[in-house]
Amino acid sequence: LLTDRVDAAFLEAAPNLKIVANVAVGYNNIDVAACTERGVLVTNTPGVLTDATADLAMALVLMSTRRLGEAERLIRSETPWQWGMFMMLGTGLQGRRLGIVGMGRIGQAVAHRGHYGFGMPVIYFNRSKKDAGLPARQVATLLDLMAEADIVVVTVPGGGPTTKLIDRAAIAAMKPTGIFVNISRGEVVDEEALIDALEAGAIAGAGLDVYEKEPHVPERLRALENCTLLPHLGSATEETRAMMCQMSVDAALAVFAGREPENRVA
After folding, report:
1. Helix (H) or strand (E) holding 118
2. DSSP letter at 161?
3. Residue-level pLDDT at 223
4. Omega of the bond leading into 215 within 30 degrees of 0 (cis)
5. How far apart are CA 194 and CA 221, in angstroms?
6. Which helix (H) or strand (E) holds 206?
7. Catalytic residue numbers, as ranges
């Protein structure tokens, strides 16, 4: 699982280990180099969770733009309220520019939902040249995307070169009306810089499914009304989790049978 750390100490304690079949797409919890050095194979579960995670991204976009988390908290708190013309006004998605950071499987699925489902023009930043598979424009730099997009959704893998990819400068480049959504990994974002921006009203809101020191969520973040917080539910559908587990089991069985497993990353 993505919360299980597989490092040199773990491998030292498991000398007969043959395979680490990670039940996730990301594998930044695994010391891949240490596994390779010991002849331990590493696999992941790409593809099967793409739709579930992209759906959740759009849920966070909708919750953030329409202030749905804030509205539900109002009802649950039993605070007196009365419908009014200007009560909890949010913003619509039609015509708002959707910016995708990382145009892999999940990034493309989010872009597809935004463009075809909500009529959003799409821009994206990817480290290499990438065909998005739909009407979309690739921008040259991350700062270009952060400045142009009305809604930013981060879908890059975690670990290594993407650590703190969304840094203070990137967040500062966003529009004051901008919405930030992260469904990748918590360490991809400078969490303190994001909190500072949300507290100051430098950006309009955020929707987060992942956190820098998960499962810890900073009190400052929990106190914000302009931030929707979910407990890492990206792939949390019964169908998706069953397929992920089956892929991991199949990978292990393949190795034990002397075959090359599918979705090998190292």
Report:
1. helix 118-118
2. G
3. 97
4. yes
5. 9
6. strand 205-208
7. 185, 214, 232
**119's tokens:** 């009529």
Degrees, nearest 5: CA angle 182-188-192: 85
Q: Would residue 190 be called left, alpha or beta, if left means φ above 0 and alpha means ψ between -120 and 50 degrees?
A: beta
d(CA 210, CA 263): 24
Residues 202 and 200: their CA atoms lie apart, in Å, by 5
Measured distance CA(46)–CA(173) in Å, rounded: 32
In sequence order, which residues have a C-beta less than 8 Å from that of residue 35 and are 6 or more positions away? 6, 11, 20, 41, 42, 266
**Single-letter code of the amino acid located at 241:** R
pLDDT value of position 1: 63
Exposure pattern of 210-231 as b/e (b: 16+ CB <10 Å)?
Answer: bbbeeeebeeebeebebbbbbe
Identify which of 107, 187, 112 has the alpha carbon closest to the alpha carbon of residue 155: 107
Q: Which of 172, 208, 160, 128 is nearest to 33 (CA)?
A: 160
Going by C-beta distance under 8 Å and a sequence separation of 6 or more, which residues neighbour residue 85? none
State how far the Cα of 103 lies from the Cα of 114, in Å rounded to an integer.
13
What is the rounded CA–CA span in Å between residue 237 and residue 41?
27
pLDDT digits (tens, 9 = 90+) for 117-176: 999 999 999 999 999 999 999 999 999 999 999 999 999 998 889 999 999 999 999 999
pLDDT in tens, 232-253: 999 999 999 999 999 999 999 9
Residue 177 structure tokens: 């009306």
Tallying the residues shown for the chain, one arrives at: 266
